[in-house]
């Protein structure tokens, strides 16, 4: 399972990188409107339009992707059926909500996006005949990997699946989490979790009467 999980982790890392950068760009764009109330208004109107047009064109099922995403996580981890675009729809609605300044938390939606992506990747691999990995297994691995990529917290992602699902979940998640973290380590939903790498070497002060080290 290490190979498929590692590949899925790379996909999760790329999506996490895109997700965080799009969210940052949306927030910067809405910040130009001035008062936060304007950002709230734009985010609310955009979300309402998406859901309204979805119902107009008979895509009422999109409303299922509102909320925390707990329902999608439950279906994904049990190996159930989800549309291949479930991760994209949940990501789009989450971006609109967070960029607009609405409060509701990021953790559950991020886990839901990852779980849905895992199901989509498992179905895609099966359709191509590349590999046979159970939906539920890949959903667990990619859920943890996407969380690690979005938060820059791989250890936290590992502890999540270990406490929720047990040692087997941690074992299948480690390759995916590692790959996602390496891909998306330059970005995060939480800027304080990003390391500040120094490119300038530092040296201890020279002892009195001694020479300073050459640079």
From TrEMBL:
It comes from Adlercreutzia muris. The chain crosses the membrane at residues 6-26, 33-54, 109-130, 136-157, 164-184. Keywords: Membrane, Transmembrane, Transmembrane helix. It is a multi-pass membrane protein. Its main location: membrane. It comes from the Bacteria. This is Chloride channel protein. It is found in: Membrane. InterPro entries: Cl-channel_core, ClC. GO terms for molecular function: chloride transmembrane transporter activity. The keyword Phosphoprotein does not apply. GO terms for cellular component: membrane.
